[in-house]
Each structure stands twice: as C-alpha cells, then as structure tokens.
Amino acid sequence: MMPRASNARIIRRLLGHMRPFSWIMGISLVARVVKIAAQAAVLGIAAAGVGIYVAAHEPGAVNWDVIFTQVKWIAIAGTTVGVASYIEQYTGHYVAFRILAAFRNIFYYAMLPLAPARTAKLQSGDAVSRVMSDCERVEPFYAHTIAPAVAAICVPAVILAWCYNVHPSFLAVLAPFYLATTFVLPWLVAKLGGDGVAYREQLGQVNAYVADSIQGVRDTVAFGYEKRRGEQLWRIGATMQEGQDKLYGADATQRALGEVFVTVGILAAAWWGIELTLDGQISTLIDLPAIIAVSVIGFYTSIGLANNYTDFRVSIIAARRLFSMMDEPPAVRETAGAAAGCAESASLHFRNVSFEYDSDDSQWSRGGRVLENFSLDIEAGRHVALVGPSGTGKSTLVNLLLRHWDAESGEIAIGNRPVTDFSLEALQQQFAVVSQRSYIFNESIGENILFGRPGASPAEVEAAAKDAGLSEWIASLPDGYESPAGERGGKLSGGQRQRIAIARAILKDAPIVLLDEPTSSLDVETEKGVMEAQRRLCRNKTTLTIAHRLSTVVDSDEILVMIEGKIAERGTHRELMAAGGWYARMFSLQLDEVDAALVA
Known about the structure:
The relative contact order is 0.08. A hairpin with a 2-residue loop joins β9 (558-563) and β10. α4 (124-166) packs antiparallel against α10 and α18 crosses α19. Helices cover 61% and strands 9% of the residues. By secondary structure, it is an alpha/beta fold. The model has no long low-confidence stretch (mean pLDDT 82).
C-alpha cells in the first residue's frame, strides 16, 4: 500500500492541474479582491458621506454638490462591485468546471491500465462515487477556496493599511482580530472536525451498496428481500453519521465563533475610535463611521477563509481518494522495446508458465498458484477447447494471453513473439473476445457492433451483423441499427446480446478468437443459432474456447481437460469418449435431450 499523501502534496497537485488556466484564475483572484475592496468603499463612502454632509451643511440650504459627489462615488464603487462579482464568478467556475472535466477524463484513462486486475477489487458504486461525487467535491477548491483565501489576506491588509493611515493605533487594535478570524478559526475547524477521510470512505461504501442494490433490485423483489436490504442500507448509512456530525459540527462551531469574533472586533474598533474622537485625534462624523463600516467588510472577508475551510478539507479528502486510485500501479506495463504490428503466425504457446492471483495481497490472494510450469502449444488455424471443473485455470490462460495479468515465470508467445514484445495496443489487435459477460453499452445496436472496429463503414457493420445472424431481426426494428440496446443490453434477449458480441468480433477480424463460455445461459434453440454464428466467426481463425457445456465443443480440433492447473486429458471428442475419463463421464451426465439436439 502506498503511503498517504500529505495535504501539501495534494494541494500542489491540484494547483498543477490549474496551471493551463492560471491567467484566468489570476483574473478571478484580482476580481474578488477588487469586488470586496469596492464593497468596503461603498460602506465607507456612505458612512463618511453623512459626516461630510453634516460638516458642510449650512442652515436653510441643501448642499447638492456634496450629495452628488458622494452618490457619484457610491455609484462608481457599486458598479465596480457588480462587474467584479460577475468576472470573479464566471472565471472561477470556468476554470473549475474545465478542470473537473479534465479530472474525469484523466481518471478514466488512469483506470484503463488497472482493468481488470486492480479494478476487480473496487466496487462499481465506489468507482462511480470517486469519478462523480469526489470530482464534484473537488470543484469548491477551485471555485470557492483559492479566491476567498487570497482575498482573506489581501483585503484585510489593504483595510489595515487604510486604518493605519487614519490613525496608527488602529493597527494594534484590529490586527489581532483579523489574525484570529483568518488563521485561528481554520485551525480550530481542523482540530474539531477530524481529517474526514473515514467519512468519505464510508460515503463510497454507501454509494457502492446503493448501486449494488439498484442493479440487483429484480432479485431483491423476487426473493422478498426489500425490507432486509433497506435495513442494511440504513445501518451502513448510519456509520457515516459520526464522521459527518464531527466534520459539519466543527463547521457550525467555527461559524458561530466567527460571528462572535466579528462582533467583538467591531466593538473594539468602535470603542477605540470613540476614545480617539474624544481626544480629538480623528473626526467623529467622518473617520469613526468609516472605520466601523470598513471593518465590517474586512472582518467578514477574513472569516470567508474559515467559512469555506470545511469545503476545502472535503475537497482535499476527495482529491486524495481520486489520486489514490489514479496512482495505483497497473498489473502490467508496456515492456521496453515493445512494438506494434502483427505476429507472423497466429499460433499460441505457453512455455513453463506459473501464475498466482494477487500473491502480494493477502486479502485477495487465492492461497496458491493457479498454474505451475504449464505448457501448451496451439497451431495456427486450429480450434482448441478447454474444459474442466471451475477454478482449474481455464480463464486464467485467457487473462494471461490478453495480458490482464502477467505470468510470474515462463513465457507466453504468439507465433515466435512473446506477448510482452507487443505493445499493449498491438496485442489487443491480435484477439477477438466473446465471453458470457460481453458488455452491451447503452447505445444503439449499430454503435455496439461498431465497438469491434470503430472505423468500419456501415456496409461492414451490416455484413458483420448478417454473419452473426442479426440482420433479419435488426431489419424488423423501427429504427434498425439506430435502435437503442438499453442499459447493459436491457432491451435485448440473451441470444441477441451474444450475437451482437459475435458481430463485434467478426467486425474486428482478428487472427485469434477467444470464446469464454459464450452460450452458457441460453436456451437450446438460441444456443444453436449462436453456435452457427460462432462457426462463421471462427472460420480460418486460431480459436480457443472455454466451455462447461461439453456439447458445444464436440466439433473442436482438440479438447483439453484441465484439472488443478494441468492438462489431464486431451484429444478429439471421439478419442476422449473412448478413453472413458473425466470428459466421458461428464459428457454422459450432461447428455440430455437438449444436448442430444445440439450434437445432432
């Protein structure tokens, strides 16, 4: 596990993402300082204006020159407030939203090298929480933290300088209150509110549980588990309350103390101002009201940093969760010298391969090697099937071929090239994969097929659909290839989803086809149709099929029985039936009227 990054490092990293927009953020910072300074000017001019008018007043006459002068300056300052406020809000959110969009994009591309070896450990709901909720919680750092922090220092400094100009003693009276509201209050929030990390982690767990509940709602209702599931959700949600109460309780305490500090600070300014007016050192009608009015703005600006400190801390926590996933080392890396291009031959070779899942993670380790000195050669163009009990390493061979994981020792090669000699992108081009869990995106049917080769023409997509046995069905749909597939292919039958997966593979036209139980949950008629499409897909291709339903692999060139990570039997269907081993026994057990129909 990587060491926990410090807050300073997280802040530097967040600021690094702001670098392309630094000049825009600079405008936002200047606009905020100008806005608050103009607000102070409005109050100061208004407060002093009354005294100026009284001082210049002549009995029986209205001094319109003084009134117009003060109104003019108030109007100028007020207009400045409006313009500066617009610029600050627009530029601040402009930067924030574009950085968030970049964050989501960076997070997505950071996740790709982790799949599936690292992402298998992350619940989808927690991943969604990170990419959506945590990204949104980073937004206040850019839009509501940087500018208030700068203003909380710059504006009070300007106001203190002006107060010093009125009378130097105001600096000693007001500075302690500014320092307390600017620095002491945020420190107090940090001490009272904890680090908030556990709260965000628990929020991710709640989101994961909710996502799991929504995805499994059909079975939840079918088994009458709604109330129990709801109670579990309540209990999990309750675990957040302590961290939530602590975090936002500290925020409430800080805001209350902030109001106390501001009130006492203003009273101190008024008290000392009165002392000075009694001594005749400042004007009672002009300087004293202006000092008090400007101090109000200054104090509320200084507590702006503390008021936004909770949002700032949540932003740091959210950023830490995002970065922790983005910084996860991938299970496989590009090999130095890896090149693009196809292999000279589509033969497959496993030479003394040993492998164990997550050997460095006791929580996820399976407690032993799945493969030990495993060797296998598959000639180009042959169809080889892997069968055997669950957990014997069949799917592991596919994972290693695709470099979802790397073997601990030994070599895996395509033709005469080890898979590590291919770039990861080039390696992906060697394989077309159809599995029992082929994902159907919430896009049109045509877009889902086009997933196999994004640059394909409409005619090529239609040809692939025809070979997969989809053309007549698609033609019967009102919107044809533009018909929506629904989330996870929810608008399609199981057979249609598998045919779309096969159409993708046909469109990709890779030299090697990997079939991982593609007909495992289909009815007999649908399975026969899908198998016909498979045969068209596999024509003249090197094919490796993983199957539990033995009737689906009887026409393979060779069938390998894997038991405990080793090849226990091998041969054609006839040879294995004649041998009377594991294959023959299992085939006899499975041979019911459904399988008889498939074999026929």
